[in-house]
Amino acid sequence: MRHAVRLVLSVWYALGVLAAVGCSKDSGSATVSGSSEAVELVRSTVQPVPPARAINESARRIPVAFDVDVVVIGGSSAGVSAAVAAARDGARVFLAAERPYLGEDLCGTYRLWLEPDEQPRSDLEKAVFAEPDDLGIGAVGVPFTYTTDVVSASAHRDTDPPALLTDGKYHSASSQSVQYDGDVEIVADLGRERNLSRVHVMAYQRRNGAADDFEVDRVVVSAAGNGKPFEAVARIENNRKGESIPEPWGPVPLSAVVSTRARYVKLAVKKSDAAGRILLGEVIIEDDAPKDAVQARRPPSPMQVKRALDQALMDAGVEFLYGCYATDVLTDEAGQVAGIVMANRSGRQAVKARVVVDATQRATV
After folding, report:
1. CATH for 145-287, among 3.60.140.10, 2.60.120.260, 3.40.710.10, 3.20.20.140?
2. Distance of alpha carbon 338 from its chain centroid, rounded?
3. What spatial distance separates the first Cα and last Cα of the chain, rounded to whole Å?
4. In what order do the strands lie in the sheet with 64-73?
5. Max alpha carbon distance in the chain (Å)?
6. What percent of the chain has pLDDT over 90?
7. How many whole angstroms separate alpha carbon 259 and alpha carbon 261?
8. Are the C-beta atoms of 218 and 170 separated by less than 8 Å?
9. pTM (2 decimals)?
10. Could you read off the pLDDT of 265-280 as tens digits, one per residue?
11. pLDDT tens-place string over residues 156-178
C-alpha cells in the first residue's frame, strides 16, 4: 500500500514540475530544458515495484457441495467403474470429472477398439463396447465407384471423385456425411457383374422443426447388367420417418433384400418434404460371395461411450459434475483424509468424504 501511495504522489509531483517549467509559450529553449528535467525527475522518482512472490489469501468459508461416503476424482472409464462399484456396495458416491464429458481415456485418445483377443465382460464394458445397433447391419460390402446426378452441398461436400459414401465411416452426421439439398440419384459401378443380396443406405435423421432438418423419405433401388437398362428391384420406405433421433442423429439403416445379377446399382433417394436436406453416411452393397467367418468388431462412436458412462452413473445413483478440478485434500483433526476441495464455474467447493479415489490418468491428486 505504501508503494502505491508513494508512486501516486511522485507522479503527481513530477507532472506539476512539468507543467511549471515546460509549458511556457515564450520560454524558448527553456521549454526543452524544463521538459528534460521533468522527465528525468519522473524517471528517478517512479521506481518499479518488485513483483510479489506470494500473497496471503484471506480466510473464507468454503461451501460444502456434497457430503458422501466416497468421492471419485476423474471421469475416465476407470473412475466411472470405481464409482459404480462403490455405489452398488451401498456407498453414497460423488464423481468429479475434469472434462465436460466422461470417458476421456477412450474418447480423448480415440482408443475405441478392443484387441482381437479381448472381449467385454462386465455390464459396463458391454455397454461401452457394444457394436452400434444403428449401424446395426454388420454388413461387408463389395467395392464400387459411384456418380451422382447432383453436386453435393458445400456444407458437407463429397470428394472429387466421389468417395465418402464408401469410406466405411458413418458415425457422425457433422463430420462423416455427404449433404444433398434435394433428391439425388446415386449410380454405383461394381466393376463387374455380381449376384447381389442386400443394399443398405445409411441416412442421418434430425426432425426438430427447423429449416435445416435432414431426413430421407424413401429409396428406390434399380439394377442393370452390362449393356442392359435399369430395372427396379426394391423400394425402401423410412419406417422411422418423423422421429426425432437424438444426436448424433443415427444413422438410420435403410435396407432391402435384392436377388439379381447386376454390375450397376442405382439408388433414387427421395428427400422428406418436411426436411430441408439429406445427409447420407454410407452406401453398402452386398453380394452372395462367402464372407470371412471371423470379422473385426465394429468400434463404438465417442458419443456412444460418453452416453454409456453417463447412463451407468445415473443407473447406480451416483451424483457427478463435469468441469471440476480437485485443488486440495481435506484432512480431519487426526490428519486423516476427509474429502477434497474442487474448483468449477461456481467457485471453490468442498466435498466431504470418508474415502477419496484418485482416478485421474496421472494420479494428480
Report:
1. 2.60.120.260
2. 34
3. 36
4. 319-321, 93-96, 64-73, 347-358, 337-344, 325-331
5. 106
6. 67
7. 7
8. no
9. 0.56
10. 999 999 999 999 999 9
11. 999 999 999 999 888 889 999 99
